[in-house]
Specification:
Elements (H helix, E strand, L loop, with lengths): L5 H5 L3 H18 L8 E5 L2 E6 L2 E12 L5 H16 L9 H9 L5 E2 L6 E4 L2 E4 L8 E8 L8 E7 L5 E8 L3 E7 L13 H9 L9 H10 L3 E9 L3 H11 L4 E5 L7 H6 L3 H14 L2 E9 L4 H11 L4 E7 L8 H7 L8 E4 L1
Parallel strand pairs: 2-9, 10-11, 10-13, 11-12, 13-14, 14-15
Antiparallel strand pairs: 1-3, 2-3, 3-4, 3-7, 5-6, 5-8, 8-9
Helix pairs in contact: 9-10
């Protein structure tokens, strides 16, 4: 008796079988790990390590992308955005603002690279990072079994076959201490979130400006031994422009921003209120450092008071203080704060000018 062929067994025509093989081949190629190409770059975001029974544990977050500066889609998007700001009277063909706009908006137009598998080195230890997702991002849980001075920052590096080096940093935060969890927009940086036109201008055109008195205040907290975690609902594409601003004006710390990609569900998630996102990020920080005392600093512009009040209810023994910067044209009514902080002792929260 003759053996049946695979085609007969599957009961499909030779043409369909050939198409099936072709599709499977394409899928295998697209899903296979890929190395960095010469025109691709990597961002490694600042992170922090916490102590466990086995040593130090931390998450490495990387972003792989290609700038594609001359792509047609990018040029069209830049032209459209320029026209929007021209209608606001913020840019002209001869304006310096055009260069600023292009430089800041370019990060929203990069080609994110999926399935990129790279390695990084920390203190001579090789760490294989997880493959990047469709948005070019990947997070990898890593560990270091070594004695490291409390509060110290160590660099980890990615070196590719083209002899380029991409560097990130991790801070080793001890089990006990004081930590500051800070919002960014309208807390430490003037953004004017409540006015969407001014928000766009402050984000993409104007020089980033500090909120009055906050650099000095944060530096004072740093001299008291505080560790810093900056948590914002802004997208990760803002980070390359935000990074030098933070380095010039504020203590070094970790940064948590939101995923944003037009092509997938992250766009819909981004359009939702940021309260759930911020609560989740803050919960994660406190759970990693359960013996720390925390100062939560935000502003009255949107939902920071409501977010921090919920965090206090979950971690009352950890929250040393909630501090809210008052923002013009926001709801500063006694009724709002009385309701929001009804379950927070009066000596645990205050408004900042």
């Amino acid at each position: 008796m003759m053996k049946k062929s695979l085609i007969d067994t599957l009961q499909i025509t030779p043409l369909r079988f050939s198409l099936l093989v072709l599709v499977m081949g394409v899928l295998l190629v697209s899903c296979s790990a890929k190395q960095l190409k010469k025109d691709e770059s990597v961002f490694l975001f600042p992170t922090s390590a916490n102590k466990t029974a086995k040593g130090w544990e931390f998450t490495i977050h990387n972003w792989v992308f290609e700038k594609e500066e001359k792509s047609l889609s990018r040029l069209v998007a830049q032209k459209s955005l320029k026209e929007v700001f021209e209608s606001m009277g913020e840019v002209t063909d001869n304006s310096e603002n055009v260069a600023v706009l292009q430089r800041r908006f370019m990060w929203f137009l990069v080609d994110n690279k999926r399935n990129k598998e790279i390695q990084t080195t920390l203190d001579e230890q090789l760490i294989k990072l997880n493959r990047t997702a469709a948005n070019g991002h990947a997070k990898t849980l890593a560990s270091l079994n070594k004695t490291v001075q409390d509060g110290k920052w160590l660099s980890f590096r990615v070196k590719d076959s083209f002899q380029r080096k991409f560097q990130g940093e991790v801070q080793f935060i001890p089990p006990q201490g004081l930590s500051v969890i800070s919002d960014i927009d309208d807390t430490i940086k003037v953004s004017q979130v409540l006015d969407k036109k001014k928000l766009l201008i402050n984000t993409f055109i104007k020089p980033y400006r500090v909120t009055k008195g906050f650099p000095e205040y944060y530096k004072k907290l740093a001299t008291q031994g505080a560790y810093f975690h900056y948590v914002s609902a802004s997208p990760w594409q803002i980070y390359p422009s935000l990074k030098p601003f933070l380095e010039r004006n504020y203590p070094k710390g970790t940064v948590a921003l939101r995923n944003f990609r037009i092509k997938d569900s992250s766009l819909l998630n981004f359009l939702k209120p940021s309260t759930d996102y911020k609560i989740k990020q803050i919960q994660n920080i406190i759970q990693r450092y359960p013996k720390h005392h925390f100062i939560l600093i935000g502003d009255s512009g949107e939902h920071d008071p409501e977010v921090y009040a919920k965090i206090y209810q979950q971690f009352p023994d950890n929250i040393q203080s909630i501090q809210i910067r008052t923002v013009k044209d926001s709801d500063l009514s006694e009724k709002r704060f009385k309701e929001v902080f009804k379950n927070v002792p009066q000596n645990r929260w205050k408004l900042l000018p």
